[in-house]
Specification:
disordered N terminus; two-stranded antiparallel ribbon; alpha+beta; 779 residues; 25 strands; 16% helix; globular
């Protein structure tokens, strides 16, 4: 019925139907990436690809056929994946199918048997899951975790339900080579490499999470952990390699083995100087328990940093990140105790923040490597730079003179951080106030030659409400709300608010088609970019073959560099194919800063004077665009909280039962080809399928089109980090225009394909609705 996933044939693209590719799952379906699981590995990042490009040659070497054991049929993704993971990780309290030890007949009975009462699994008939598919699913899980694919990056058959014509080029057709993050020697010794930045104080104190002044000026470091315990040894050696020279007059401290709940370490020692940029220390005892080191011990450690005043300007003495290494594992962990359910971003999941939780979205991924850390910090500087004045948004940092005067002449803001405050979610203004963290996208009539939306002839693609140098802006937008009261079946009242937008001071006449969009959270973008195309397409059900009423689809977008057709991953309508594409588009549309991807100011064809900001060369170099892209890619995902709370666990199960997980897919697995090794082969929990869904007329905008996305269609937004929104941004407003004031209102606005799931939520008793909310707050 479906081509085996073990047959991986490389060519230029993925065969799909352009207009019919669509999504998701059955009532409980579609939560798992069916790519074979593999051990996490990685290497320092290679040379960065051209901005917006995929990071590998279009003509990648062909892959030979491989057969890696039993393969899962697409029926698993469409009917079972909302509750069961293909990687063996329990989801929502549903069991790990690799642990099933019954017979095929018993397995089939579980699938076919009708249940009564508070049953969490419906019976699936032959039309939904054929007997042959049940046999294939049983064979897959009975065989144990599958091996890593021998090669990837090739042609993927998206299945009979999606159509046959059209080519989608993979974003990363081939993986770059590199040294693994973790290696194991022949004798069993494990070596781990990672990187970090200086901190203002200890982990559990204020000034630990903020970025210190001049953080981008060589205040990063690499470190190496050499663990001999698995080899029968008795030591763990640490090597610290700072970017800047260490002080000649002071010794670098190495603190390890937390004592109790505070920031006190049982061991505080000086490291041995090899050179000013090479320091070593060997740990030979568990100082906390006064014994030898054993496999499984949690070894917490940090560095006391003293830099050479001749190498860096400003402050020279710092604390460092606090790391946790599980002896024998070869991995850093964000937690004191193992908690797979809380690992939202895989190995890059950041530790809990004890003070200053508003900075949860601003931390770098835990597994960041030396090749990424300095571009990340330099990219953050650009993100916080005002492109009109060159000033940094945080005090104590020098003016970035070379980037002053680049904003405009028309814009919405002059700095990335002005919309993405704390890297978080924007919100519409209060009624009658000007927009600061939301924009108005504009549309002309019909589509352009590549299927994308045409621009408003008088204003371009976006209403720009600010003008540099005292010029005239294009106009302003304000919002007013109409209240729509209602009640749940149990009598609990609610009030929704429906927005109406008004335009004033328009410089060139009325606006016909528009869409208001708030700024989106930035965490996890690199991980979403790293998901392989087949992992997205296997959830497509454009023909609604399983007849569940859900029929989303990927948006298909021409790459701004090569023109190759790719899957859209970013934006409210999934209209950006990569992180560089998203960054470059925001630079020109929001700030009026040109790049090689978009070298012309954002203007309407009939708009005079707008092109005055377009110069001979792009205003932002490819190198700086790449720095911004590394920053966005390597922002770490916050961990889940309260995963052991019974209400949270019940809410997670109810979330799946209601059908929410059919589109808000709990877990996916990144591919192995991303140029940044930290993002490869990660099991993540984004709660999104990256696909477009018809959300009903109430959420429709007045856009004419956005490639394949119609006015009623929106990409499933990732939910990771949603429970921290109030801490990060001081509000809980959701949906594309921010109309929902909390998660319950957001659910109540769902329509179209999501209406059935909404109705199941509405029918729940208040206690169960509260449990779903508790679960969402844990994300």
């Amino acid at each position: 019925m479906f081509e085996s996933r073990s047959r991986r044939l490389v060519s230029g693209g993925l065969r799909v139907v352009l207009g019919l590719l669509a999504t998701c799952a059955a009532e409980l379906g579609c939560s798992s990436d069916l790519s074979p699981a593999s051990p996490s590995q990685g290497s320092p990042s290679p040379e960065s690809p051209s901005p917006g490009d995929g990071g590998g040659p279009e003509g990648a070497p062909p892959c030979e056929e491989t057969s890696g054991g039993p393969a899962l049929p697409q029926a698993f993704a469409l009917n079972c994946g909302g509750c069961h993971s293909a990687h063996g990780k329990p989801s929502g309290g549903f069991p790990d199918l690799f642990a099933f030890d019954g017979t095929l007949e018993e397995f089939t009975a579980q699938v076919r048997t009708e249940r009564t009462g508070d049953a969490r699994m419906p019976a699936f008939g032959e039309q939904q899951i054929a007997t042959a598919d049940i046999e294939a699913i049983f064979a897959y899980f009975s065989a144990g975790a599958p091996p890593a694919p021998a090669c990837d990056g090739g042609e993927v058959d998206p299945g009979e339900c999606s159509g046959v014509d059209g080519d989608i080029s993979p974003l990363f057709p081939s993986a770059a080579a590199g040294k693994p993050i973790t290696t194991t020697a022949a004798d069993g010794t494990i070596t781990l490499e990672a990187a970090g930045r200086v901190r203002g104080r200890h982990e559990k104190e204020e000034e630990f999470s903020p970025y210190q002044p001049r953080y981008f000026e060589n205040r990063s470091y690499k470190f190496i952990v050499e663990d001999t315990i698995p080899a029968g040894g008795s030591t763990v050696k640490f090597t610290w390699l700072p970017k800047a020279n260490a002080s000649n007059n002071q010794t670098i401290n190495f603190r390890c083995w937390y004592s109790g709940e505070g920031n006190v370490f049982d061991s505080n020692n000086g490291m041995e100087r090899i050179t000013s940029t090479h320091w070593e220390f060997v740990v030979d005892r568990n100082a906390r328990d006064s014994r030898e080191i054993r496999a499984g011990d949690l070894l917490e450690f940090e560095f006391g940093v003293f830099l050479d005043a001749g190498t860096v300007e400003g402050r020279t003495s710092y604390y460092s990140d606090t790391f946790r290494y599980r002896v024998g594992s070869g991995e850093l962990t964000p937690f004191d105790e193992p908690n797979e359910a809380a690992l939202s971003g895989g190995d890059g999941t950041i530790p809990y923040i004890y003070e200053e939780p508003h900075l949860y979205y601003e931390q770098m991924a835990l597994n960041i490597q030396e090749s990424s850390i300095q571009p990340f910090l330099e990219g953050r500087r650009l993100f916080h730079t005002d492109f009109a004045t060159g000033e940094h948004s945080e005090g104590g940092n020098p003016v970035f003179d070379e980037h002053a005067g680049k904003a405009g002449p028309l814009s919405n803001q002059a700095a990335c951080v002005s919309c993405h405050i704390n890297n978080g979610r924007g919100a519409p203004p209060e009624p009658g106030e000007a927009m600061e963290t939301a924009v108005v996208k504009l549309f002309g009539a019909g589509a352009n030659a590549d299927g994308g939306p045409t621009a408003d002839p008088s204003y371009g693609r976006q209403l720009q409400d600010k003008a540099q140098g005292g010029g005239e802006s294009e106009g302003t937008a304000t919002v007013a709300y109409t209240e729509e009261p209602g009640q749940f079946p149990d009598g609990t009242p609610y009030v929704l608010r429906k927005p109406t937008f008004r335009f004033d001071g328009l410089s060139a006449g009325p606006i016909a088609s528009y869409s208001v969009r708030v700024a989106r959270p930035l965490v996890g973008m690199g991980l979403l970019e790293a998901i392989a195309e087949d992992a997205v397409l296997e959830r497509a059900d454009g023909m609604d073959c399983n007849q569940d009423g859900i029929s989303g689809r990927p948006n298909l977008i021409p790459d701004p560099v090569s023109g190759a057709l790719r899957i859209g991953r970013f934006g409210w309508k999934a209209s950006k194919v990569s992180v560089p594409h998203q960054v470059a588009d925001a630079l020109v549309a929001d700030m009026g800063v040109t790049t090689s991807l978009f070298p012309v100011e954002e203007c309407g064809e009939a708009q005079s004077g707008c092109q005055d900001g377009t110069r001979g060369d792009p205003e932002l170099s490819d190198e700086d665009l790449d720095r911004l892209a590394v920053y966005m890619r390597m922002l770490g995902v916050p961990p889940r909280r309260d995963t052991a709370d019974p209400a949270v666990q019940r809410g997670e199960a109810l979330f799946s039962q209601a059908g929410c997980a059919s589109c808000h897919v709990p877990s996916m697995k990144t591919g192995s080809r991303h140029p940044l090794v930290e993002l490869r082969d990660q099991l993540i929990q984004p709660f999104s399928d990256l696909l477009l869904h018809d959300m009903g007329e109430e959420l429709a905008d007045t856009s004419t089109s956005d490639h394949l996305a119609g006015p009623r269609e929106w990409r499933t937004p990732p939910l990771w980090g949603i429970g921290l929104l109030e801490a990060v941004n001081g509000h809980t407003q959701l949906l594309h225009d921010g109309r929902a004031r909390n998660v319950v209102e957001a659910i109540l606005w769902h329509g179209g394909e999501a209406d059935a799931a909404k109705q199941r939520f509405v029918a729940l008793p208040a206690e169960d609705r509260d449990a779903v909310v508790a679960f969402l707050r844990s994300l």
